[in-house]
Design a protein that fits this description.
180 residues; mainly alpha; Zincin-like; 2 domains; three-stranded mixed beta sheet; 3 strands; globular; binds zinc ion
Length: 180
């Protein structure tokens, strides 16, 4: 199996395993994965021809250590399941506040998925790959011990926009964070 096939398999397993946690009644299907040179590890890009997002992964990750490619795939796959915020990626940074919440949600979801399918310790090894907003996701992840609690937290965050989510996040991690 080459790395493209492996990535597609990991993406499909993630979508199948997580779509219900994102409150989707039906499996939304899978996205194309393209490896390209990028500044960041990954991203999603709207493909005008297909009228659908592609998952883009930095081609440097093809030769990386275990974890970085996997984490990036899970994070970007989460963006595809987070349908409420997908339009923000097509239209640009109009609601940046909610875009940060989107990053917190997707990083948290990737960590939850790894804990659920492997274990908490393996999930910990993925901490080093999260983006800056993901530091809040790590704090949330570590402050709730049981898996049901983590899934509930994810569901709560999905319901809110950043204005409503902030007090909730602050309560869980015991620290107020602001974006500037
Ligand atoms: Zn992201």
């Amino acid at each position: 199996m080459d790395i493209q096939e492996k990535s597609e398999l990991l993406h499909k397993r993630f979508i199948d395993g997580m779509y219900q946690s994102f409150q989707l009644r039906e499996n939304p299907g899978y996205y194309d994965i393209v490896f390209i040179p990028m500044w960041s590890n990954g991203g999603i890009r709207f493909n005008e021809q297909k009228k659908r997002f592609d998952i883009c992964i930095n081609d440097d990750l093809l030769t990386g250590n275990y974890g970085n490619l996997e984490y990036t795939l899970y994070h970007e796959s989460s963006h595809c399941l987070h349908v409420k915020y997908l339009p923000l990626f097509a239209k640009g940074p109009a609601k940046f506040r909610n875009k940060i919440l989107g990053e917190i949600i997707t990083s948290l979801s990737a960590l939850i998925y790894v804990e659920r399918n492997e274990d908490k310790e393996t999930a910990r090894t993925f901490f080093k790959y999260v983006n800056s907003e993901g530091q809040t996701s790590i704090a949330l992840f570590q402050n709730i011990n049981d898996m049901d609690g983590k899934i509930n937290l994810l569901k709560n965050l999905l319901r809110n926009d950043m204005k409503e989510a902030r007090p909730f996040i602050t309560k869980v991690i015991g620290k107020n964070r602001i974006s500037i």
